[in-house]
Amino acid sequence: MQIASGNLLTGLPPASSEEVFELLHQRAGLTIERIVSRGQASPPGFWYDNPQEEWVLLLSGSAGLTLEGASAEHVMQAGAWLHIPAHRRHRIEWTDGAQPTIWLAIHHDPGADVAA
């Protein structure tokens, strides 16, 4: 098996009007990606509804997320993580526009043994 390595905080893509998703690792039932946001938010009325569970870690910057049914916006700062169950609708209300917001996102099938 080939060894892969990198640094999630370096080699950032140039500023863009779109979030940048970079695939880091993928196998059956599991996807790991780096997401770089620079002031982006979900479009009005748009909700993510992922079939996989999602675990996100905010490495830098900040963001506000709304989880459907939650009473308040979930504000994240560097070091914060969040587990979003499959099909839990959510949206990104805002991301830091003054610095890159860097996410590590792990998507996995519900109930899958991802440690194997």
From TrEMBL:
Source organism (scientific name): Collimonas pratensis
Signal peptide bounds: none
Protein name: Cupin type-2 domain-containing protein
Cupin type-2 domain residues: 47-106
Annotated coiled-coil segments of the chain: none
